[in-house]
Amino acid sequence: MLRLFRYLKPYWIQAVILVALIGAQSFVTLRLPSLMANIINQGVTDNNPDIIYQTGAKMAVYTVIVVILAIVANYFSATLSGKLARDIRRDIFQKVTSFSVADIDDFTTASLINRSTRDVSQVQGTITLCLSMAIRVPTMAIFAIVEAVRTAPNMTWIIALVVTVMVMTIAIIMATVIPKMNLWQKLMDKITLLTRENLTGLRVIRAFNNEGGEAKKFGRTNREITEVSFRIDAIMSLISPLLTLFFSGTSLLCIWIGISLMETDFSYLGNMMAFMQYAIQVVMSFLFLTMLFVMIPRSRIAAKRINEVLDKKSEIKWRPKGEKNSGETAVEFRKVSFQYAGADENVLTDVSFTAKAGETTAFIGSTGSGKTTLVSLVPRLYDATSGEILVNGKNLKDYGEKELMQKIGFVPQRGRLFSGTVKSNLRFGRATATDEEIRKAAKVAQADEFIQKMEGGYDAKISQGGTNVSGGQRQRLAIARAIARKPEIYVFDDAFSALDLKTDAKLREELRKITKEAVVMIVAQRIGTIKNAEQIVVLDAGKVVGKGTHYHLLHSCRVYQEIARSQMSEEEFRQELQKSIPEEIGARAELVGVTATKTVKRKEEK
């Protein structure tokens, strides 16, 4: 946890002022018992009212000063801890947004949410207490012990006894409760995960009438965390009565020993009263220290979890700034293989192809064939396990992050929208896009018509995640967002799945008009979506089993034939085969012509 105090470095002046304020507060506070002793010894015992009034006035002034110093010190303490928490949250957010998908999977989304909110708040509360108490407590304790020894040296053993017993008691309690606090943090992550999972999947749960099953799952975790919380609270609840016992015991011991000493010297009454207040100050100091001991174990765990995020080394390393490339716009995979961390088998194996500018390269295959994983490698959401991926002739790993991302317009399977307006979402990829460019992108994505019907048009509100628009509208807005970016490479990961066939066809027709100099990569489930693609890559169990045009693959690729048969009637399939005959004959004739030309050239060379 001490590592997080480095965030106080920019605010060292305020920290110095805080230390000075707390030091002054402690000094003035510790003047009050000696003034009380003077009132008793010189004012009451000697029957001198002037001493009583004068010393009482001093005590009143000192009390006002202590209150003012405490208010100002608490203000500085709260301000510093607030700034520290703000900076920690900022760094966690920046770190998380730089993570790859694999890095986020290592923590889970629920855990990252807890670490950046609840854990930071836990640390902030402890640091607030530390800034106000960590300086005051030892200062007060040391000064009080010195004054107590000077005032009544033959009673100092009382302080030593009470402090020793108190420290031992607290140490035993903390040793018992810390392991349970670790377990509590893990269970909180689990219950956050279950809550988030149920809220995001509420429609599915209700559709399958499985509320009872989810309630049981949540109930088990809820009972576990309740039991652990009960044990922690039961142990921690012992602290308050024990401290009351120590506090009262100290006062009783001071009075008992002080009265026995007064039998020989009545003037010892003032010293006894002063010593009792100093002893109480020492006990109070350890009382505040106990509050720190209660909070620090939890905060130590929270700080450890925060540091795990801040110290995480991303699996994907970006160059500060890549060298400029002059290659033609293209994406090339060279024997690329990929395996998820902890998996036994590759998701992709020896994948090779080239997606050229002005052409559409489509990917199709059964569920789990690796299509989404393949296109996720282009924007480096993951890094290939082996092989090379070249963009415009340069290895992906030689690009700077900003340099690569500016080239790519990525539309994932689920078109994620952000809270704001239609316009702010379409400008998300390029803040400088004009209203005309946004409108043009929306028209290409077949979104302009429904946007105009929304209240406010392009200024219409979009809720978090785009929940106030339909799935098809959400996909079209996500596609328009990518188009407004004007990238060199378009990556559509099954981004047309929620569109009807008419809208799908119209969108692809308009898209072709604006992507004549760009690479277009499309993952699709429907053959109708990719039928006119210049290149179709067929995947099966992570391997390329076919590559070519639609009509070529109908004759040459068994997997593609099976997909086609599953989506067409037998009559439609036969018609498609008939349409493919001229192309097949042309392709074979071209191949024969090329072979004959090469043969003639060899003869001439000989």
What does this structure look like?
The strands form three sheets. This protein has a six-stranded mixed sheet. The protein has 23 helices and twelve strands. The longest helix is centred in the N-terminal third of the chain and has 49 residues, at 49-97. By secondary structure, it is α/β, with parallel strands linked by helices.
Give a quick summary of the entry.
The protein is α/β, with parallel strands linked by helices. It contains 23 helices and twelve strands.
Largest sheet: 6 strands, mixed
Distance between the termini: 81 Å
Average per-residue pLDDT, rounded, comes to 79
Low-pLDDT stretches are 584-606
Rg over C-alpha atoms, rounded to the nearest angstrom: 37 Å
Number of strands: 12
* SS element count, helices: 23
Write the layout of secondary structure elements.
Layout: H1 12-29, H2 31-44, H3 49-97, H4 101-107, H5 109-116, H6 118-134, H7 136-151, H8 156-200, H9 202-207, H10 211-236, H11 239-262, H12 268-311, E1 330-338, E2 348-356, E3 360-365, H13 371-376, E4 386-391, E5 394-395, H14 401-405, E6 408-411, E7 420-421, H15 422-426, H16 435-444, H17 448-453, E8 461-462, H18 471-484, E9 489-493, H19 501-514, E10 519-523, H20 527-530, E11 535-540, E12 543-548, H21 550-556, H22 558-567, H23 570-605
Parallel strand pairs: 3-10, 3-11, 6-9, 9-10
Antiparallel strand pairs: 1-2, 1-4, 4-5, 7-8, 11-12
